[in-house]
């Protein structure tokens, strides 16, 4: 039996596949000049992955025969991730690079034993959480290996323990976010980590790729939530995090966070948890321009108080209505830039914080829009990826990219990305929002919509390379929360510099001397 869960050719629950509202299709035809025939995926049964090579090392003896799968469907479902090029390729029937087998360990010890055998037999290992990587984190460059396995961690899905005194919980890596949240909610707590990929991404993937959720203003980034973790490597087990903070040398937790499977497999994560909020309320604000909105959200980020959710769309994103996917198509021609503020906390604290935020935003030119825009954003907060599939179906390419920079440099970064995308992809629509804020700077999240046209994967690859150059030249980081994978590796090397890259390679060589862990991902010069 194949492993079946997420839609193989797109996003999420196949039952929830969306069709594009006619009003939106019309808007796109008008804006992008899309006249293409509908571009439906090929049939799954028609896809032929490359022949599966036998995997040496008798991994069945470690995990059990039923937990080593080599059927075509399971292999296809573990091929690459969920970026738009990934989807275009798999929809077109291209399963090149499919793993030779999918292995499902059930414990830390099984993971460790699988890694030892793979190192001995030179089998490349791709740790596989929710499979939602958008940066090629699941697409290793594994030529020259005896075989490649996807190490699917879904069986490691327990809440191992909860410490109510310290307010921490230890979670296994294969727990998908909704189940992790449910298990914590049952005991009166929340993790507060709600990325747009919430419905499918896993705890291990959040740690491995330094994820950031939509409520990061209130709950922090995932890496800030991590108090401890365990990493199984081909050289043994690394444990980090004896205390919440420590002055005992460099923080080894930080070496593991963001390591994207290149050093080993995270087999548990201890996270800080919060009491379930008694109150949740969301609202909208309108600013005359993006720059005035940026000034206002900066004031909140620097001088407080901070809402739990804080996002600001630019003029184009506001006009298209992307901040409210469920109402998409109700085109907003009123102008301005929509900000969404959300407040989660105790019934005693939220009204006070909300009133103070209101005073700040009003004094900086914001016009209160009531709760409807905020509630509408909450309703649609996980819908956009379904919309992407609907766009792909009608011949539109929709993709996102993100960066971060200091406040003093943010408008330069914004302009550089927009100009480059508009130059590389004429007739596209480029939208942006400030997605995460810090006292010193913020993250910018761009969405690009363009006609697929001829050779969309190659066109996007070239445009993405140009925009990645522009990000680095404008002083931004190549990723604020999607990670590095294979796609961003060369630009990460420019950020880290030659000595930084050499340090990473030295760590990798010590933990993974045979180079079997996700070769080519993250660390330049591998693969
Ligand atoms: C539609 C969409 C929306 C998204 N929205 C957001 C968002 O709002 N915020 C955000 O931060 N990201 C977002 N992402 C990106 C992605 O969801 C995150 O990077 C997430 O952290 C990946 O988790 P995952 O469990 O799916 O990991 P995977 O995709 O399975 O893996 C990601 C990387 O980590 C490695 N890995 C996975 N598990 C482990 C482990 N246990 N040990 C070691 N290495 C491991 C993999 O080998 C891979 O390199 C989005 C992606 C999509 C497709």
UniProtKB/TrEMBL annotation:
This chain's source organism reads Actinoallomurus iriomotensis
The record's GO molecular-function terms, alphabetically, read: alkylglycerone-phosphate synthase activity; FAD binding
What region holds the FAD-binding PCMH-type domain? 95-276
Q: Which family does it belong to?
A: Belongs to the FAD-binding oxidoreductase/transferase type 4 family.
Which PROSITE patterns is this protein grouped with?
Answer: FAD_PCMH (PS51387)
Residues reported to bind substrate: 388
User: Which cofactor is recorded for it?
Assistant: FAD
Biological process according to GO: lipid biosynthetic process
Q: Which InterPro entries match?
A: Alkyl-DHAP_Synthase, FAD-bd_oxidored_4_C, FAD-bd_PCMH, FAD-bd_PCMH-like_sf, FAD-bd_PCMH_sub2, FAD-linked_Oxase-like_C, Oxid_FAD_bind_N, Vanillyl_alc_oxidase_C-sub2
Site note Important for enzyme activity applies to: 311
Active-site residues annotated for this sequence:
445
User: Can you name this protein?
Assistant: Alkyldihydroxyacetonephosphate synthase
The UniProt annotation places FAD binding at 127-133, 260-266
> Which Gene3D superfamilies does this UniProt record tie to the protein?
3.30.300.330, 3.30.465.10, 3.30.70.3450, Vanillyl-alcohol Oxidase, Chain A, domain 4
Q: Which UniProt keywords apply?
A: FAD, Flavoprotein
Q: Which Pfam families match?
A: FAD-oxidase_C (PF02913), FAD_binding_4 (PF01565)
